[in-house]
Amino acid sequence: MAGTHDFVVADEAVARALAGRLAEYGFPRVLARPHPDGGWLVMALDAGPYPVDTVGHRQIAAVRREALAIARTYGGRPSGGSQFDVSQAAEHRRWTAPVEVRGTKARPPVPEVTVVPAPPRRQLALTPDHATPGTVEPAGLDDVPWGELGHAHGSAADVPGLLRELADGTEEWDEVLDELFGDNLLHQGDCYEATAPALPFLTELIVADVVPARRRRELYLWLVVAGGRRNDNLVAFADLALDEEEPLRTGAWTEEVFRTVGDQVPVLLDRWEVEPPGIRFVLAVLAAQHPGHGVRVADRIAAMAAELDGTQQGAYLRLAVELVRGRDERALALASEIIGWEDRLRPEWLEAPGVPDGIKAAHVLAEGVLCTIE
After folding, report:
1. 161 and 298: one domain?
2. Is residue 111 included in any domain, yes or no?
3. What highest taxon heads this organism's lineage (predicted)?
């Protein structure tokens, strides 16, 4: 495979200087053009080739991090990029831009990459399950002015109906839940005005004990995803805060969503003993996202980690223990080990400038645990 590495800088002069430096480093072709949102976009073609396997993905990611380190010296920030089959590199060579710099090298140097074998994954039981099938009327649902709130597709007036379908145990439960959160309230990882007000109703469904364990786990997971948007934003926007006068920031509504999820955690932690292992595992992640509440179950998480020692879930639980106990440096070290064997986690998260160790480690935990759920 091949790819591109994209960065945004302040103006044309800086873009020309960065393009020249990236070409000197080893990229065969670097383009720059005005960015629609301001500044200039610099695009470095990385023709590779890299093998389409774990080693290859690690190599191109390592080259991207080296390129980012160069871009940062010019005040640049990452703006994505792409990966594609090497046969498409010729098409990218036909792209044009106001600035074009050609390098004398065929490719940048490739850092040595060590791939660590992943521990085995354990299937965690969703039994015993003490829920009794039934329905529940969410308290206060009609007190929220949903029609005045918005989500990804406009008015949130449809939210109470979708929540009631879940509370009534609809046969299309998975589809409704995905529409509610995957499509409306957390579309493409963004938070919206109606996201936070909807979250306490998930807790109502959980504590009513009328939803079977598999579905309850989905509700817990959506709370993890919602609360995790805060950390995801802090890691993603870290390069915007390189100027000491510009604080770390999050996207709209994410702080409110994070706080609302935190408000649910004490009630949910009270369920530790009644939930089956497959849900306790997810509950440990919620505890680690909110260590002020989660510290009270630190010993229980540690005991579960010991039971699952040598497995992927055990590694994530060890990370959760360090987070709830406030040992962020040790948590970051464990997160680095996990990233060594989990392809879908990105090493650059651990290098986000200005982001506290605990937030980086918690982001790895929340994103990584989603990889273990079948």
Report:
1. yes
2. no
3. Bacteria
Inside any domain, residue 319: yes
Instruction: Return per-residue pLDDT of the chain as tens, 374 residues.
Output: 999 999 999 999 999 999 999 999 999 999 999 999 899 999 999 999 999 988 898 899 899 989 999 999 999 988 888 999 998 878 877 888 999 999 999 999 988 887 788 999 999 999 999 999 999 999 999 999 999 999 999 999 999 999 999 999 999 999 999 999 999 999 999 999 999 999 999 999 999 999 999 999 999 999 999 999 999 999 987 766 544 445 566 778 999 999 999 999 999 999 999 999 999 999 999 999 999 999 999 999 999 999 999 999 999 999 999 999 999 999 999 999 999 888 888 888 998 888 999 999 999 999 999 999 87
| 26 φ/ψ sector (left φ>0, alpha ψ -120 to 50, else beta) | left
For 202-244, strand residue ranges (E) read: none
CATH number of the domain within which 7 lies: 3.30.70.260
Q: Rounded CA gap, 133 and 128, in Å?
A: 14
Domain that holds residue 214: 141-372
* Domain membership flag for residue 109: no
Any alpha helices (H) in 295-356, and if so which ranges?
A: 298-307, 312-324, 328-341
Edge-to-edge strand ranges of the sheet holding 2-9: 77-84, 2-9, 40-46, 29-34, 99-102
Residues 201 and 317 in one domain: yes
**Residue 288 CB contacts under 8 Å (≥ 6 apart), including other chains:** 294, 301, 319, 320, 323, 324, 362, 365
pTM confidence score = 0.86
Q: Would 295 be classed as within a structural domain?
A: yes
